[in-house]
Write a structure and sequence with these properties.
The protein has 353 residues and is α/β, with parallel strands linked by helices. The chain has helices at 3-39, 42-72, 77-110, 119-141, 145-171, 178-210, 231-242, 264-269, 328-347, and strands at residues 219-225, 247-253, 294-297, 314-317. Helix 7 (231-242) links the parallel strand 1 and strand 2 (247-253).
Length: 353
């Protein structure tokens, strides 16, 4: 090994050492934040807030070291990916430290341990967030892309489970003071963000090892109407035609008509659009609505279609005029314009012409 190669490896090892130390400090802070929350321990909470200052200093130091590495070396592709990923992971760890501080500040405001009836849900969220972070850090520091992929799957599962806890919190409205309700909402949102940042760390681990970048996000959209004979199926067909690469689209009605509008199939076929729904269907009351990023009501308020909108789901109400069979062209243009605006806002790219 040449002198330059030895220096390169020494500097890389130093970066790994600093990152591992930062990750350990952040994990300890998150664990103490969760413990303080569950015990209603203000002293422990304030210790975490104070402990965030050396974490921030360590994060700035790691950032300086990484910039220095680029100034001294001309790294190859693998080393370039690794140090670039470390810089992003450094930022994500600093944010997780900030979320731990948020939890502690809310703990002090709450002023007591959670009620026994509510405690198991909080404990589950804390443990789940810590576990995902632990897996993410372990995958990154060990250059284990397969473990990182499993961590991504775990993070997605935990996020879906958190939706149920948010719903349960809403159900506690009559049992908690309004201020306390908001305190817990901030806590839960902070834990949710910890999981999101941990997922990002897993994705950086995959990138550092394999060079594989994060795939573009795909959005799930549900179009709702009265009887699912015209508006919903048309919106679904337009979205699938114009934005097939960035979304999955479903449709349902309050109830199901006996058949799709007589003119709809022919109308969309003339425009090179394929109907995805061949028979009207009613919304399944057991449907997992939390799986959708956006729910769009094409007829009436969303709450007339669904009892409750999941916490992470966006609910939209589009004002679509009633049309007859000979006005489908106007309806098509109206829906296409609104769908284009929605998906361009979500995804950032334009659909096909």
């Amino acid at each position: 090994m040449s002198q330059y190669e030895a220096r390169l490896e020494k500097d890389l090892a130093h970066i790994r050492e600093k990152l591992a130390a930062l990750a350990t400090a952040v994990q300890t802070g998150l664990a103490d934040a969760g413990g303080g929350l569950l015990a209603g321990d203000a002293t422990r909470a304030y210790a975490v807030v104070l402990g965030d200052h050396p974490i921030n200093r360590a994060s700035r130091e790691l950032d300086r070291i990484c910039h220095g590495f680029f100034a001294v070396h001309l790294p190859g592709a693998g080393h370039l990916r690794f140090v670039s990923a470390v810089m992003r992971v450094n930022l994500e760890l600093e944010r997780i430290g900030d979320y731990a501080v948020n939890i502690c500040r809310e703990t002090v405001q709450i002023g007591h341990a959670p009620a026994e009836a509510f405690r198991p849900r909080i404990e589950h969220m804390v443990d789940a967030a810590r576990e995902v972070l632990s897996e993410a850090v372990a995958a990154f520091v060990s250059d284990d892309a397969e473990r990182a992929q499993r961590g991504i799957v775990m993070a997605n599962q935990v996020t879906r489970g958190f939706g149920e806890v948010f719903d349960a919190l809403a159900g506690e409205e009559g049992n908690l003071r309004v201020q306390e309700l908001f305190n817990y909402l901030v806590v839960f949102n902070s834990l949710d963000r910890v999981v999101d940042q941990s997922k990002n760390i897993c994705e950086e681990a995959v990138f550092a090892v394999t060079g594989q970048t994060k795939p573009p996000k795909s959005y799930r959209v549900l179009f709702l109407d009265e009887d699912n004979s015209l508006l919903g199926p048309m919106a679904q067909a337009i979205a699938a035609r114009n934005f097939s690469q960035c979304g999955e689209y479903d449709t349902a009605g309050k109830h199901a008509a006996t058949a799709i509008n007589d003119n709809l199939d022919r109308f969309v076929a003339e425009r090179g659009v394929e109907l995805k729904t061949l028979a009207p269907k009613a919304l399944d009351p057991t449907a997992e609505l939390a799986a959708y990023h956006v729910i769009v009501s094409l007829q009436g308020p969303v709450h007339t279609h669904v009892e409750a909108v999941p916490f992470h789901t966006i609910a939209l109400e589009w004002k679509i005029d009633d049309v007859s069979g000979d006005e489908l062209d106007n309806l098509y243009r109206t829906l296409a314009a609104q769908i284009d605006e929605l998906m361009t806002t979500l995804h950032g790219g334009e659909g096909e012409v």
